[in-house]
Design brief:
- The chain is an alpha/beta fold and about 350 residues long.
- Helices cover about 35% and strands about 20% of the residues.
- Strands 1, 2, 3, 4, 5, 6 and 7 form a 7-stranded mixed sheet that branches.
- Strand 13 and strand 14 form a beta hairpin.
Length: about 350
């Protein structure tokens, strides 16, 4: 794959426009309604707008099982995390394969439709072990899996409306960001994933990208994180100040990513890279403990995991950067790769 090309070669759009949208919205009123939680609603929107390309709907069993076993879709394309539609017992029992359902956010507002191609049950602990390497509910990602329904519906979706999102005006779609990069004349763009306000170590990594490439996308996750994490308001305000007062004008774009933290460590690092590829990034920064809750993964497990995959197949160049520190002997900021003082 060429750098900057959407994953799978095509930017997916499941958005319905014009008279067809009005017609389907009327039809949706007569369909069984499946209410999605906030996390699943964000997954719905990423599928609809191409952030999760090549997915066109929630995963069926074939994709789900191969993702867990090999971090690939059923057709062999790299994809490290399951993207599924969990439902309660009542909805699962009342819907048959071949039915069409209306997909609604938690308020009950209908956002789209889905053709139910499959319904199946899964082993949540087995999923947790495959994705996280653990099934201990003390892990902040594992507990999200274990509290979820084990009953899944799968099939292609069609989006009629945009969901209610945090910092809605900041959550630009892949198509919008790609147009922004093109308008700026950027040929190379690094994506930076974060769930925190900036600190000196992050700034160091971002400056490396600015030294090497045309532009930088700072793309904080705005969905569910874990208890004690910073609020979105603090993250956005801090980055706005940094961009306006520190970085060179016109070199950095700030946009929100409407998805949630899985805390899946190495697998999520790869997932973050592929998603940013869909948003138009040619490069992606993976530093120390990427998407890794404290105490569960080694500092650079994500680096080792990503090295298993060929860059040409990934279609995005991964900047595997070490965590910086100040070395008194060197008298400057350094990393394990540039300083021998231990």
């Amino acid at each position: 794959m060429r750098l900057g090309e959407p994953h799978g070669g095509k930017l997916v759009s499941r958005l319905v426009e014009g008279p067809e949208r009005e017609r389907l919205a009327e039809e949706a009123l007569e369909l069984p309604k499946v209410v999605m939680d906030a996390n699943t609603t964000m997954d719905f929107w990423q599928i609809a707008t191409g952030g999760f390309s090549p997915l066109e709907g929630f995963m069926g069993r074939g994709d789900y099982e191969r993702v867990l076993a090999e971090a690939r879709l059923e057709d062999g394309l790299i994809w490290p995390l399951p993207v599924v539609l969990p439902v309660g017992e009542e909805a699962f029992s009342s819907v048959s394969e071949g039915d069409e359902v209306a997909l609604a956010e938690s308020s009950g507002r209908v956002l789209g439709l889905m053709e139910v191609e499959e319904k199946f049950s899964v082993d949540l602990r087995a999923e947790a072990r495959a994705v996280y390497g653990y099934d201990d509910p003390a892990h902040p990602g594992v507990v999200k899996v274990l509290r979820r329904s084990d009953k899944l519906l799968a099939g292609p979706l069609r989006a009629l409306k945009e969901p209610s999102l945090p910092f809605q005006e900041l959550c630009r779609t892949p198509e919008e960001l790609r147009a922004e990069f093109k308008a700026r004349g950027w040929r190379t763009v690094a994506g930076f994933q974060t769930r925190n306000p900036p600190h000196r170590a992050h700034e160091h990594l971002q400056r490396i990208a600015l030294e090497l490439l045309d532009g930088l996308l700072i793309h904080p996750v705005l969905g569910e994180k874990k208890p004690g994490d910073f609020k979105n308001e603090a993250i956005i305000e801090a980055y706005r100040w940094l961009i306006e007062n520190v970085y060179p004008k016109g070199r950095v774009v700030l946009s929100g990513l409407a998805t949630w933290m899985r805390f899946a460590g190495p697998r999520e690092a790869l997932f973050h890279a592929l998603v940013r590829k869909n948003y138009g990034c040619t490069h992606f920064i993976v530093g120390r403990l990427h998407a890794s809750p404290s105490g569960w993964y080694g500092d650079y497990d994500a680096h080792d995991y990503i090295r298993q995959f060929d860059e040409e197949e990934l279609g995005i160049s991964i900047l595997l950067l070490k965590g910086p520190f100040y070395c008194r002997a060197c008298g400057c900021t350094a990393t394990d790769s540039t300083c021998g003082h231990g």
